[in-house]
Description:
Elements lengths: L4 H55 L23 E5 L4 E3 L12 H4 L3 E5 L2 E8 L12 H49 L14 H50 L6 H28 L8 E3 L1 H18 L3 E5 L7 E3 L1 H18 L5 E9 L2 E8 L6 H6 L13 H4 L4 H11 L3 E6 L5 E7 L5
Parallel strand pairs: 6-8
Antiparallel strand pairs: 1-2, 1-4, 3-4, 5-7, 8-9, 9-11, 10-11
Helix pairs in contact: 1-3, 3-4, 4-5, 5-10, 6-7, 7-10
Amino acid sequence: MMRSLVFKLSVAFLLVSLIGIALVAFFAGRVSTSEFNNFANAQSDSVLMDQLVNYYEINGSWENLDRVGIGGVGPNVEEVRPFTVVDAQGEVVLGGLGQEMGNRVPRGWLNRGVRIEVDGDEVGQIIFNENRARGMVQAPRNDFTSRVNRAIFLAALGATAVSLVIGVLLARSLIKPLQEITRATQAVAQGDLKQQVPVRSDDELGKLATSFNQMSADLAQSRDLRRQMTADIAHDLRTPLSLILGHAEALSDGVLPPTPETFDVIHDEARRLNRLVEDLRLLSLAEAGELSFAVRPVQPQSLLERTVVAHTPAAQQKQVELLLDAPADLPDVEVDPDRLAQVLDNLVSNALRYTPENGRIQLTAQQTPTGIQLRVQDSGPGMDAADLAHVFDRFYRGDKSRQRHDGGSGLGLAIARSIVESHNGRIWAESTLGDGATFIIELPLVSL
């Protein structure tokens, strides 16, 4: 299923936000828990310190300290006490951490002890295990707040960095196809029309890449068609001109006699040349939308009847049956009857050219949900799929072996398509090789 770019960006931003929130919550929770435990230990150690100072102030010494419950631990439980207390000389007065009463602790232990002072004099030390940081006894509450705030700030900073990395990766994934399209566009602007960019997704960027590829292919095809059209025009103009010039020079040099046959050849080629130039002018006007139309409501039956009458002599001469099937009750169409007659004349002329003797050409009209269809169907050799794809192109001839002189200018169907499309209609061909061809014109009905 296609996901739009808006959806992907929304999900990406949501994902980045959730990751940032999760990282802040995780690190802040971990650090806050650790700091709270340290704060609680510091509070407990502060209570312990107060108990020891009070004991010494009341008794004046550490004598019988082990018989009093200190720090929440009962008397005579040295094996579970998480600390030990020594006097000013380093002798154990409260056992713990594996040390018994009367022992002297190792000198290194004194370096991590916390001083016990009474009236400014050191009377002993509390020694915790190595995992307890020295000085935690004096940790004030304000330090706890500042450490938690600093931890949250660092967690937020880390989450921002991670979110930034994800955002950069996301931005690069979006920019890469745009950069590819930009480079390809610049290449097309410089004349390289065969540019294609990879389609990496099915979202808006993917559609943009697909549209660019189609545009590039169409531009390349248009360029090739324009070159081919120029070559075809030059060929079609050169042939009659060469004949006219050749015969004129021959007449001037006395090589050919000035007979009616010679002048007929010159006249026929001049007419052919004039017809080609007129077709080119008409096609250019039609494609530029500058061809004038006198549009009015017309009965489809009258259009086909006029075409049948005009081409009946040629059909009889070739022994081709020309049939008409057009109901009289069809609704009117809005067309220029002269221009549409030109289209139908071209279709019927082509059908006569390809339909063998004793064949038939049928003209029909019928109403469809989208308008009125006019059909010209012949019983000729038909066309294959390759010919159908290009039959309306300029100068296209499906029969490559047929001479241009016999096949017309090759612009008739291109002109027909332009005229029909100018009427907001469409024209297409249907055919099977060996089973004739059908050209279909679909025109909109008269708007009420």
